[in-house]
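Rotation project, supervised by the postdoc (A.L.). Task for the rotation student: set up a whole-complex structure prediction and record inputs and outputs verbatim in this book. Inputs entered:
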Amino acid sequence: MSVDGLTHHISSRYNEDLQRLLSNVLAMGGLVERQLTRAIGGISEANEEVIVRVAQEELRVNQLEREIDEDCSRILATRSPTASDLRLILTILKTITDLERIGDEAEKIAAIAARLAGRERPRNRYRELRNLGELVIGMVHDTLDAFARHDTALALAVLRRDRIVDEEYEAIHRQSITFMMEDPRTIRRALDIMWVVRSLERIGDHSKNICEYLIYLIHGRDVRHVRIEDIERELSVHPVREPEARELGNDHGDTVPLAAAGRSGMLGAGAVRPGSGAE
Amino acid sequence: MSVDGLTHHISSRYNEDLQRLLSNVLAMGGLVERQLTRAIGGISEANEEVIVRVAQEELRVNQLEREIDEDCSRILATRSPTASDLRLILTILKTITDLERIGDEAEKIAAIAARLAGRERPRNRYRELRNLGELVIGMVHDTLDAFARHDTALALAVLRRDRIVDEEYEAIHRQSITFMMEDPRTIRRALDIMWVVRSLERIGDHSKNICEYLIYLIHGRDVRHVRIEDIERELSVHPVREPEARELGNDHGDTVPLAAAGRSGMLGAGAVRPGSGAE
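Outputs recorded:
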């Protein structure tokens, strides 16, 4: 085998490794999104079986988290990635922690859904929870799409939506306190609503975290604890930069051009990710 | 300069990098522990200034998180660590995320402490919160000690204590609901107590996460989602193993023997970590 052939061989194995990693992250994200959709559905449909399904999916989510963690360690140890490949691995390591915790919150919501199913339902059938739930499911969905397509604009849109979630959270919170004070018999139900809203707010935060990592991946800029207006201003001035490529040392030459790969569909058929939307 | 001299030079620079990293993680942990101690103190002392101090410390915590993240990226890119050094970097990357979130919860507790300071206090001056707070501060403290000394036994003790926190959480939760139903005028205060307890329970979870990463670092075994009895049984059979050293490829020869370094005090003066206990 010629040196060129060997390089090509190494390169394609490496690309396969990275592709498997990415498709596992998106599969894990798809599962978590489905858990959340089921849990929210369980509230409005008063469905007690939801908790069993969500818990089953949790086992698979945890298994995927472990697999991805191991794959990242192996790639770091054997490939010594630098620049954008290194950022990709670091982004994935952080992303899966947040995805796993979104799954945990979905499980908590499912448990409350099962409890609410056994109680008298309010007239509006928890419309406020359904609305906020839809908003947060949309955030998780768009976060995964932004991840699959390396879409900065979509990631920024998720960051902005997190503010709306926080406002909704405050509003439902205040309303629940009012109900509790007016009629103490509704205390348990109002508390359950508050816990669900709290979990949804956390899920919004986790989505926001992932979008911040994604901006780090695409732009090499750590935007945690930075105001969104400042991020938007800065990114519109410097839409795509690779500041670390020079600082961190040269690439091995066997890297996948990530932004391009993401846009043209690293996972095969276009930019469609598994489990997206359909169910 | 001889080749030996050069190797020694590289080796000592690398060791300095790892030491700086470790001392920054422990400094960050010390700050977070202090934030939590202040926040809990603020509840029993009805001290409104607490929130300002805790928020000031949060800025430093966030700054440290960013610095450590950057240092980890730089070491991964320029040193290509393998085996135990790689596990150390991965452990640190995950640990600082949990530490930062402990700081966030401490800030939430401080905000509630400021609110409680403006209200009539119950006879017991929130003794149940102080007790649970002490327990959780102890968990954070021991987590950081376990980290500094690579102490598996202490890490396992923290995992066991997380169960007590969960039980206490449930008990205070039930009691608060009873109070609310008996006297609706106490609803707001009871809710504030519930939020504090919820934050403490989260902090317990974050400590547990860090201890699980630590067991991965020392034993190369991922114990997330594994029952503590199974972990203890397994670790007592295989007290110290290095399964990944061979699998992941050979070391560069410039690694720090971590377990030994931790025990003999990687940070200089013995195994004492900065900010530990005092304040």
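Student's summary: Residues 169 and 197 of chain A are 6 Å apart (CA to CA).
Supervisor addendum: The first helix of chain A runs from residue 3 to 45.
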